[in-house]
Structures are given as structure tokens and as C-alpha cells.
Amino acid sequence: MTEKYVYSFNEGNKELKDLLGSKGANLAEMTKMLLPVPPGFTLTTESCKRFFYEKQSIWNGLDKEIDAHLKQLEQLTGKKFSDMENPLLLSIRSGASHSMPGMMDTILNLGLNDQSVVGLSNATSNERFAYDSYRRFIQMFSDVVMEIPKVRFESIIEKVKKIKEIELDKDLDGDDLKSIVKKYKEIYLQETKNEFPQDPMEQLRLAIKAVFASWNNPRAIFYREMHNISKLNGTAVNIQSMVFGNKGESSGTGVVFTRDPGTGDKKLFGEFLLNAQGEDVVAGIRTPNDIVELNILMPEIYHQIKEIARNLEKHYKDMQDIEFTIEDGTLFLLQTRNGKRTAHSAIAIAVDLHKDGVITKEEALMRIKPQQIEQLLHSNFDENAIIKATSIAKGLAASPGAASGRICFTAESVEEAYKKGIKTILVRQETSPEDISGMVKAEGILTARGGMTSHAAVVARGMGKCCVAGCSQVKIHEEEKTVKYKDGVLHEGDFISLDGTTGIVYLDEIEKTKPTLGETFRELMDWIDEIKTISVRANADTPEDAKQALEFGAEGIGLIRTEHMFFKENRVSSVRRMILSSTAEERAKALNELLPMQKNDFYQIYDVMGELPVTIRLLDPPLHEFMPVKEEEIRELAKTMSLSLEELNGRITELHEVNPMLGHRGVRLGITYPEISRMQVRAIMEAAIEQQVNKNNEVEPEIMIPLISDVKELIYIKAEIEDEIKKVFTEKRKTISYHIGTMIEVPRATLTADKIAEEADFFSFGTNDLTQMGFGFSRDDSGSFISDYMEKNILEQGPFDTIDQEGIGQLVKLAVEKGRQIKPNFKIGVCGEHGGDPASIEFFQKLGLTYVSCSPFRVPIARLAAAQAAIRYPSSKIK
Ligand code: ADP
Ligand code: MG
Ligand code: MG
After folding, report:
1. Whole-prediction pTM value?
2. Which among 116, 91, 115 has a CA at the least distance from the CA of 24?
3. What's the chain's Rg over C-alpha atoms?
4. Which residues are near ligand 1 (CB < 6 Å)?
5. Ligand 3 midpoint to CA 715 (Å)
6. pLDDT tens, 77-97?
7. What gap in Å lies between CA 329 and CA 272, rounded to an integer?
């Protein structure tokens, strides 16, 4: 059997994305659905792979297949390729299995030459159309195949328009276009030292090779790297008969989304241009018309599009982004794909599709990316600040969000500024794929040209980046590096602010606020809670944090860092005296000052959290962190402690440690100074009892001992603590339930977790320290070399961002197994940074942990990740 490298559109279907590319697979699917797709065929991604294997040439077998399919196409269309009277013209379109917008290029009107353009003109009685098609073809062919810069051609059109005093391309007449074609061919000759190829077959072969070769152009490689796309064969090439949107005012081209990609609203959203072809809409050369205007100009076509949009959405079970062309009042479909969308609309659409019975609840949840939740939680301008801000222009609200930064005119300058930690706004006439590296690193994007489906708008929405597009009220001069607006001029480095939700551009930097989450979001969160099995708690140190966490749906607090309470202005002096006291009495005095403050903190937090669990960690960091550094602070402290400056300095020096991360910290502090632990526990318990007495709030504090490496440490400190608790109970004449557990963050603790479990009421993994000690990577110093590890592929991910499943994760697994051997229903959580990381959460789900805890702003992300993990791994049994 000979290998098959070419598929006709009526042979494929949407499942064949890997083979036909997504564009090809969807063209085939639409053909199968009997939608009006111009006929054509697809060279598979495997043929691209073989093309590189054949040293970038078209081998015999492929040639034959192409010939056979061309014949078929000629039969279907009743036109002949290479015909001089009424030629079959083709579009050559790339498309890999992942949509890579604009990464590889399209050539339209292929097959035209000096003779057939005359034939086309005669056959259609439309000279303007024929020469417009030819000049487009020469331009695209020169760009894609010969890499002649587009500006060379554009400047010719601009010149002719200037001489004729017209604004738009479509106002050029046949004679203008004829002379433009002549000039284009001269440029081609100048640049390539060859005449423009006249043989359609040669044109076709060159085009196919160029599309294949574009798979490995630097832009495409960069895009794949950025999106972690690997293991693909290559791009497919779609060869399709042309339909013409540039035949006059009853022709046109456009793009529609089945819903508003900004809000998710269920209504057609899109743009079109009359008498235009192909990329005119997307490239932002002319500002297009809103799709609703088509309802006035061509109501039948509008309704046909609406109907098709509805069917396609149902068929694909997702919002579609559809490209169409109208030729002489007849509609043709050229592409459909799942539309890119903002986080806000992603949620609205997923929820809505479930309510419409199109997808299940689980499918709806799986549709939303945790990063999209993150997008929702950020950036809006402060309402008061915005009133005072100076607006200078309004463009299209292309991608929501708010951004402030310094003006940069090129992707390179954005990247440079980014390296220095400077926030930027990329300001360009219009963007193109070359700008992507800069778009990634800018806070926001402003363009003067282009519509809602322009490159800038589409890419920004995909990235969740704020974008104002088509802002023609400002004049952007890229060479001059200025932005002119009605009252003035801005230069590179000046601050501007963009509101991607209104399209307004402001001067200066504007303060931002926390966003509010809509009703749909809450609905989604309810579904999440129905499905997820792992609880999500928050790390919070203040009542305000706790409130925020609750608002985001935290189911408790997994970590209160009591030392954060110590850092408050008015307390640190007592803390310092507590640490530096040379006698137990002095220390007791300082501790007594701290007691009511800590107690009040806990009381407030219990108050916010009600009966939800609250885990409080006893003092953890090395003590020198509290020490004064400034000369005058030391002097001041010496005075309050009635010590001489030397004496105090001496004690501070004594406290200095060579390696404080492995020094006197965590439970080790409690072993040396049990009175500190006693004070903290007293505060915890007294506050809890008072909550019960005053507010009938049944608080059961979870007291957590950090940095345990041996069960004997726990036994010692527990005895101290429980003795203190007994005293509190006696004094208050009341007992309440409480739990004493440990952090598991020293590797030795994971190895002896069974012994520790005998004494502990719960475990909470401190995966930051566990990673630090497990890898031997200092958390404070690893920044300088981890990036090298990633670059050289020694590490795939930063182990402090995502848990290292192979190593550190195995320590966690071991400790879980050992702990649950002793206590089968043992409560086990995670309170390190990994508690908010989706990939890590999936791993913790597999291990059957009870909860994860993360910073309040990550709680919604963690909840979604937990639900998705539960859908993927429903039985969270430990293997
Ligand atoms: P991209 O991947 O950049 O969207 P496409 O291959 O979809 O590139 O081509 C860009 C545009 O070219 C399409 O949106 C459409 O307007 C036009 N086009 C492509 N093929 C044809 C065709 N057969 N007839 C008419 N226009 C076409
Ligand atoms: Mg397209
Ligand atoms: Mg720790």
C-alpha cells in the first residue's frame, strides 16, 4: 500500500487534527456538515515531516497525489488550473494541530499570471477585481515565499493613493491596480533577480515548500516554545479553491464569534469589510464594520451566518470563531475553531453551555483554566483614581483589564525594560507575530489600527492581557518614537494607562483595585465545591486576610504565621526584649506584654472564621530576624533594657548565625525557651475560650509545631504546652477541644512520620522547607542558579513553584503512608506555596490529602484545580 499524504476535504473530519492540522480537520468537518466550504484538499502534517526528511523537497509520490487532487478540484469547480480564460485560483493555507494564529502564512489567488489575469478580467467583466487579485497574489507570494519585506509593496500603494487623493485601497480603480501590478513585478525582479513566476504549477510548488519551511521559522519556533508545544510533526497545507470577497459591493469578508469573546454574551460578535479579501479584516488595514451592520446591508446572509453559527456551536459544543467570505451575494465558510476568549467569558460560556444542556458540569469545569481564574482576580483601576485621571483618547476595548506602564515602541525595548523590572505598555501602529515576545512581557498593548479581531486583540485576549486596539485618536510614530494626541505628545518612557474594558487611554500611572467577582463566578464556585474532595484553606496572618480568604471561599485557615504578628510596629520592641533578656524574669515580663496582643489577634481571626478550622503555627523564624539593625534603634533598645551599648551589641552578635535557615528556629526555639511557646499557646487558648463564652463560637484551635525532625522534640514541647493549657482551663474554669499537630518539613520527619503520628493530631507539609532541605537548595539563594537549571533542562520547573514529584513528592508520599498506617483517617494538609499550584494540587489529590492551604488570592484557583483533580482522579486512594 502506498502511503497517503493528501486528503480531500470530503475525506477528513474534526477528529483528525493531528494529521490534517486543526484548520484542515475543521474544513473537512464543515464539508461533512454540508456547509458551503469551497472545495480543496490537505497535505498532511506527516508530509511536512517527510518534507524535512527529504531535505526540503517535494518527492515523487507527493507530486502525484497533488496532481490527482488538483484534477478532482477542477472537476468540482468546473475551472482549470493554468487556464488562461477563466482559471481555477487557489489559496494555500498552513495549519498545524494547535492553532498558532498568524504563525505561518497564507497565499491567496495563486494561479494568476500576466495572461490569465486578462482572462479573469474578461470572464468577470471586472478589471478592477482581476488586477486587485493579482497584486495581492504577487505581494503575498513575495512575502511568504521570497521574504521580500511587505513595506516595499505597501509604499507603492500608499504613493498611488496619495497622488490620486484617495484614502482606501478599495477606491483604487482597474488602471491604478494595473500600474501597481507592473511596479510590483519590478520590485520582484529587483529583489530576486528573476521574473515573477508565470507557471501556475511552479507557483504552487514554491508556495507549498514555503509553507512547509515556515514551520521552522524563528517566530513559529518561539511560539511553540512559549506555549510548550512539542512533539508535533509539522504543519499541514490546505489547498483550496478561491472564493472572492473583492468582487464589488455585494462581496466581502469577515470574522464572527458565536458569542462575545469579551463577556461571553450569547450574541453574534464580529466584523466584516465589503469588497475586500482575506487578511484585510484581521490585519487591521481598514477599520471594519460591526457585524450587525450586515443585517442591514445583506439581511439574508446575516441570518444565514447566524443560523450556521448556532449549528456550529452546538456541533462543536463550544464557542466558535468563524471566518467567512461573501462572493456576489453567496456565503462561503473558510474556517471555524474554538474561539479564544477572556477569563470572564470563558466562565460565562462554560456555565451557559452546561445550562443549555450542551455539556456536563464536569466538562464545564474542565473548560476553565486555573490561570483564567487568576486573570479574573486582578486589575481594575481604582474608581476614585480614575475620576482624577486624564483621558487622552478612546479606542476599542479589545481585551479587558487595566494596565499602567512606560511607553515602548518595539518588542525589543519591552524586553529590555522587563529585564530591569520596568513595567511597560507596548505601543504600535498594529502588531504582528514578530511582536509576540514583547506582548508577553508588556503590561498592556495599545494599537492605532485594527479592529476587535486584529492580531493585537486576538493575541492579547488569549494571553489575558489588557489591550486597547484601533485607537485612531492617537497618532503613533514608531520611527520618531512619539505618540501624538490632541493636546500633546508622549515619548518613549512616559507613563500611560490603558483600560481594556472601556478602551480609554489615560496619562500617567493609575492605582488599581481588587476586582469583584460576578454571579456566574459564584455559581461556578458552587459547582466546584460539589465536586472537589480536597479542602482548600488559606494562609492568613490578619483578620483582613482571613476575611479576604473567606470571600474567596476558603474552608479554614491552614497557616497563621504568628511571627508576622510580631513584626507590627508597636510590638517589635517587646519581642526584642523577650529575645535579648538574660534572665527568665525579664523574659517573662516581655512575654506578658505580648500576650494580650497575640490573644487579641487570635480572637479577631476566630471571630472572622467562626467555626471553620484555624491552624496556628508557633514561632518559627530565626530570632535574629527581629533584631534591630540601625544604630539609633540599637541605642533606643539598650536604653529601654537598661543595658550598655556594648552589652546589647554583644548579645546581638551572639545571636548571629552562620546558616540561620538551618539554625535556631522552629521547635528549637521552644525547646530552648519553652516560655515563648507557653505564652503563644495561652493566647491561643484564652482567645478560643473567650470566643466560646462571649459568642458561643465553638472554636477548636489547631496548634502547629514547626520544624519537627524527631518525635522526642514533639513529646517535649507537647508536655510544656499541655501543662500551660491545663493552667488556662483551671483559671478559666472551662475546657475546650484542641489539637496539636506538626509541620512535616524536615526530611527526617518524613522518614519517621509513623513515630511522629503517634503523638500528633495532624500533619501539615511545609513543602517550601521540605524542598529546601530535600534538594539542599537554599530558598534565599537559589534564585541565582535555578534559571540556569531550567535553561539547561536539568529542571523542568522551579521546585519551589511546582512540587518535584519524583523526589520531594516521594518524601510527602512516604510520610502520608506512614502517618495513615498509624491513624487511618489522619488529617493531613499542605501549607507551603505548592498549596496554590494546580499541578501540585493534582499530585496532592492523588495522595489523598485532606486539604491544601495557600494565600487568599490563590484560593479560587486552588478550588478549581482541586475540582479538576477530583474529576481526573476520582478515587484518591494512596497507591
Ligand atoms: P490564518 O491562519 O492566519 O487565519 P487563513 O489560512 O485562515 O490564515 O487565511 C487568512 C484569510 O485568507 C482567511 O480568513 C480568508 O479570509 C482568506 N482565505 C483563505 N482561503 C481562502 C479562499 N479559499 N478563498 C477566499 N479567501 C480565503
Ligand atoms: Mg484564518
Ligand atoms: Mg517552614
Report:
1. 0.77
2. 91
3. 33
4. 38, 91, 93, 102, 106, 108, 240, 242-243, 253, 278-279, 323, 325, 334-335
5. 19
6. 999 999 999 899 999 999 888
7. 14
